[in-house]
Known about the structure:
Number of domains: 2
Order of helices and strands: HHHHHHHHHHHHHH
Oligomer: single chain
Strand content: under 5%
Structural class: mainly alpha
Radius of gyration: 21 Å
Amino acid sequence: MQSRWQIFKSAFLASLPIMLGYVLMGGAFGIMLDEKGYGALCAFFMGVFIYAGVMQFAAVELLAQGLDFIALVVLAFVINARHIFYGISMLGAFSKYKGFKKFYMIFSLTDETFALLNLKNPKHADSLKKPLQTLESTSPQCTQDLQDSKTALEDSQTPADSENALYCFFIALLNQIYWIIGCVGGSLSATLLHKNGISTQGVEFVMSAVFLVIFLEQFKTHKWLGMVGIAIGALSLWIFGADSFLLPAIFIGIALALIYKNLPKNLTQTFYKAKRK
């Protein structure tokens, strides 16, 4: 059984790629906020209580133009509506949390945290509850045994469950800390950067680069899923256009995932046998 420090260290190492992106992207936000006349304290509170990259960038302009609460609420929903789908897919994983930790895991589920929890999650007893997520690393026979195992569905947590829950909590917490550091650091350094003639143009592309790295890591182990995702995105872009394709693409992707998850066991096993030949 791992100590809390060992679990924290594992989470920290796994979150390092996100740290680089969040500190730079948060720094870009802090610089923009400072240019509109809002200081580091405002950057800190926005990083703590809003914690939504795109929404915070949009809020900078709203603050500069005069805050319209209704417009802010509508904009926040439109920008972050995709998180509804993230939350639905994490219902089982978050059921192990209680009290504040459960609330915090829901609140802190950003795009990058969601991807990292699914990409970097260590092997644990929860894989017994979701055997279809481990098909890449197990044989069809092993998957069949796991699905038939009733003891894997007990409500009580095993030590592995507890360790994994703490690992995921540390991932979420560290990611927000990185973001806050970036927001405050960007605000504090804005004046210094401008005085030294350092251009900040292009910093906003940092988050796109982070998404690309995460996708490539996923693609290494799940190539066929990556190709399906690219096809869905391209089709949605063609049908709905650049301004409206994201939510339909996410909806179609989740719908296909649910259909695949509920395919008959023998059909799923046949697919994986054919894919490996």
